[in-house]
Amino acid sequence: MRIFWIFIINFIYFCVCKKKKHITPSSFIIAQTNNKIRLRNKLRYYDNEYPKQNISIPSLLLSKRIIFLSSPIYPHISEQIISQLLYLEYESKRKPIHLYINSTGDLENNKIVNLNGITDVISIVDVINYISSDVYTYCLGKAYGIACILASSGKKGYRFSLKNSSFCLKQSYSIIPFNQATNIEIQNKEIMNTKKKVIDIIAKNTEKDSNIISEILDRDRYFNAKEASDFNLIDHILEKQ
């Protein structure tokens, strides 16, 4: 009886292997252990170039030159984005890179998660401007604070948003711990220098005067997709044709 079932199972898998060209009969060797029949490998086949199992979504997106920012910009997130930009630049200097953004920037549940977030996003913007590949940006929901700076830093003419996305240019946060007066003065000077860099980046991206941007950053300023387009934070609003 056992031999009969071995024959039946092998016949079925042989038929399957013949139908699916990526499967070989040797993948399904029958083994007998402790009077039990088992398959050495599970039935698995591939469609096109991607396996049906063990697919990493970030890796799949990266293979299509897509970087997806879906969290606040923690230090390790900025390092990851920079490394992905450099990797895609190494792969091809001619093909564009697509940066998808749905991020609260440096806030999570209205709490600051990264005091160095501004310098982190400046580093990402510097890499975007340094590499030869064009970076297209897409806002898929929200781009607040430093994420808004990132959304506006894509190639001019290729900064996109979905129609119900929202943007926010937030006032800069800074906390100077108790310290000697001289150290506080040094830290305050560095904060002002960093704020000036942010103002210059936004002014360049939006083609607005630096004084206007400086006044806006004194308070939080929210934009819907249409307002963001009018302000020149983005270029196009995506709608289904």
Spatial separation of the terminal alpha carbons: 62 Å
Low-confidence stretches: 18-47
The portion of residues assigned to helices is 40-55%
In the CATH hierarchy, what is the superfamily of the largest domain? 2-enoyl-CoA Hydratase, Chain A, domain 1
- CATH architecture type of the largest domain: Alpha-Beta Complex
Mind telling me the C-alpha Rg?
26 Å
Instruction: Determine the strand fraction and express it as a percent band.
Output: 15-25%
Q: How would the global form be characterised?
A: globular
* Class inferred from helices and paired strands: alpha/beta
Number of helices in the DSSP assignment: 8
User: Oligomeric form of this entry?
Assistant: single chain
The average pLDDT is 80
- State the total count of DSSP E strands: 13
Indicate the CATH topology of the largest domain.
2-enoyl-CoA Hydratase, Chain A, domain 1
- Total count of domains: 2
The CATH class of the largest domain is: Alpha Beta
Largest sheet: 7 strands, mixed
What is the string of SSEs from the N terminus onward? Answer: HEEEEHEHEEEHEHEEHHEHE
